[in-house]
Design brief:
- By secondary structure, this protein is an alpha+beta fold.
- 36% of the residues lie in helices and 17% in strands.
- The strands form 4 sheets. It has a 5-stranded mixed beta sheet with strand order 7-8-9-5-10.
- Helix 2 runs antiparallel to helix 3 (94-102), helix 8 packs across helix 9 and helix 10 packs across helix 11 (335-350).
- The longest helix has 28 residues, at 60-87.
């Protein structure tokens, strides 16, 4: 048996290097405490014995990831070189898209091995080490990962976003996602799962560039099949999404970027949803944190979670002061969000059912043939309630 690697990276050093300075340092933030500190990439996005489990030979999973990293680092550098050549007008943008598409399955593997996903896997588990088993179960399903990659390539638009000052963040989830609209209040998944309509997927390339796949109601400043240079406010919008994808850590080349993004961070753990009858069996699922790109959708989601407070809006005129306490007029504040919330809740209210739905592939997915990102974890009465 080989000696175990004690500190194991859940975000690869070959990716962290592209967010660091010449001395291989980044600023790392503990998102829940707000603490920001400089650190070397050797010590960033790591935890002790991250991938060790009694079921596996010592260092087995760490070695497997190392083999993937051996070609991923050069691949990312090739993507960056291709972007550079395109910007000097030497080559077509399609070559950038083709390269990112080529390595998309690898990026999805990096997503499933990330610290944020490991945290989600461990949520509600009696044995926290079992998060490694859940991770390996998903990663061993290569057919699923290829199918999810194919769905994204086939049905999502593609673009590159750029910031000239290197101010993009990277979360401990690696890939960051957000919903571009509320589809429904799902039983098994969130509105930002890959494979759904109106979803944006952000893949870190470096502190200067992100690859973006998106479907539907995309931001106006992100246009498909081109490099979109974002200004400071637009970068803040992206960084707000990225930091809210984090559960524990976020990193950046820029300390200022982390400080600015922290003001928009809202911690929310995964949640367990239980359904069933008094006679059983009971079934449940662990849900990801909901993250919305647009503030109106975020506000609508908060209203959906607080049905009992809707009566404060009864009889309020469009030009009246909004009863939420913002001091803005109702028409400038909550009116649109409340309309969205009512539209989502209406089908459930009609049958007096609790508002949780299964995916409707025709309405919610990018295609009837799409592969949707798997739920975090599902459980039944035999596991939890016996």
């Amino acid at each position: 048996m080989s000696e175990v690697t004690i500190n194991q990276h859940y975000i690869s050093k070959c990716i962290l290097a592209n967010f660091s300075n010449k001395d291989e340092q980044v600023y790392e933030c503990l998102v829940n405490s707000g603490k920001i500190y400089p650190t070397n990439i050797n010590n960033s996005m790591v935890s002790r014995y991250t991938y060790e489990h009694p079921y596996f030979e010592t260092n087995r999973i760490e070695k497997w990831f190392s083999r993937i990293e051996d070609y991923t680092g050069p691949a990312i550098n090739q993507i960056l070189l291709t972007i550079e050549k395109h910007e000097s007008e030497d080559i077509d943008f399609s070559l950038i898209r083709d390269l990112v598409n080529k390595y998309l399955t690898t990026f999805i593997i990096f997503y499933y091995r990330s610290g944020a996903l490991l945290y989600e896997y461990s949520f509600g588990q009696k044995n926290k080490d079992d998060s490694v088993l859940i991770m390996t179960e998903k990663l061993m399903n290569s057919k699923y990962i290829r199918a999810l990659s194919k769905t994204i390539i086939q049905y999502y638009n593609f673009a590159i976003i750029k910031n000239n000052q290197g101010k993009f963040l990277m979360s401990d989830q690696f890939i960051s996602t957000a919903a571009l609209s509320i589809k429904n209040k799902f039983f098994q998944i969130s509105n930002r799962h890959m494979g759904l309509r109106d979803t944006i997927i952000l893949i870190p390339i470096s502190k200067d560039y992100y690859a973006v796949y998106y479907h539907g109601n995309s931001p106006r400043n992100i246009q498909k099949n081109k490099i979109n240079t974002l200004d400071g406010l637009q970068v803040c919008d992206i960084n707000r999404v990225i930091i809210n994808n984090a559960y524990k850590k976020c990193i950046s080349y820029s300390k200022e970027s982390l400080e600015n993004a922290l003001d928009k961070f809202e911690y929310e753990s995964p949640s367990e949803i239980i359904s069933g009858s008094d006679n059983g069996p009971y079934f449940g699922a662990t849900l990801k944190k909901e993250i919305f790109f647009y503030s109106r959708d975020q506000k609508a989601w908060e209203l959906i979670k607080e049905l009992n407070k809707w009566n404060i809006y009864d009889g309020i005129g469009r030009n009246d002061k909004c009863p939420c306490g913002s001091n803005a007029k109702y028409k400038k504040c909550c009116i649109e969000a409340l309309e969205i919330a009512k539209r989502i809740i209406a089908p459930f209210a009609a049958v007096q059912a609790y508002p949780f739905a299964s995916i409707n592939m025709v309405k919610d997915a990018v295609s009837i043939n799409a592969t949707i990102e798997m739920p975090i974890e599902e459980f039944d009465s035999r596991q939890e309630f016996s």
